[in-house]
Fold this protein.
Amino acid sequence: MELNGVEIEDTFAEAFPIKVARVVITAVTERWAEEAAREATGFATSVIGCPAEAGIDMMLSRADTPDGRPGVAIMICHFKKDGMKAQLIERLGECVLTAPTTAMFNGLEAEEKLPVKLHFFGDGFEYEKEVGGRKVWAIPMMEGEFICEEEYGVKTGVAGGNLFILAKNQMSALAAAENAVSAIRCVEGTITPFPGGIVASGSKPGSHKYKFMHASTNERYCPTLRDKVENTEIPEGVNSVYEIVINGVSEEAVKEAMRVGIEAAVKVPDVVKITAGNFGGKLGKYQLRLKDVLGL
């Protein structure tokens, strides 16, 4: 299969169920909403070593937020409900409550909701009110008041959708990955949790040599190991590979993100091949086939 002259391997991305929450953060300016969002989603690339996976879903206009201010939607993902609750409390309490002019609201309609009770910070001076038709708490603070909802919807989403970009050189691979991430950011209900949305250190489960490692380098996709690894996946002429990992509120959202990401990546010259990572279908519930995602 080919798209825009780029080989599309007939394979699939293997993805997993995960708990997802979505939070809308607003502020007096877009800058401060984004500052709080970036703090709240920090150190959250992979649950291999981070306490959660998180990222910015999308920027929101004044018309799309409960209080009519600029906003940012973030997503936080965790495999366990109790872990999700702890991450919401810690990330929102330490990174949003503390940020200038911010407020926060539930961003996901779901039957199941988790309590995030930050009003106790008000030490008894807090009070309830309505904002945009929503019941919220107003917490007196040095700058004025912090407004927040205290119930956040959580549902089962999908983690681990992915695509690999193989290119002739590092700059072409990076440009293609940047294109892919920019396109994916327009797909509501998805995040690319790694730095800038791009994975430079694609990994495999465990390690051949160091048994204490939960994950290690994916040698089959390391260009410098092409002549040293028998089962290399690096074609001649390929000298750089980047991975994009995608989490979403649903399988459909992740598939759409993969589609637009691939279509954006193949527009860059010197991209040779697009493929995806999987474990042979042994570990993940979802098998997101590239040809189906692209309608080929």
About this structure: Residues 206 and 215 are 4 Å apart (CA to CA). The chain has a mean pLDDT of 97. Helices lie at 30-40, 81-95, 170-184, 251-265, 290-294. The longest helix spans residues 81-95.
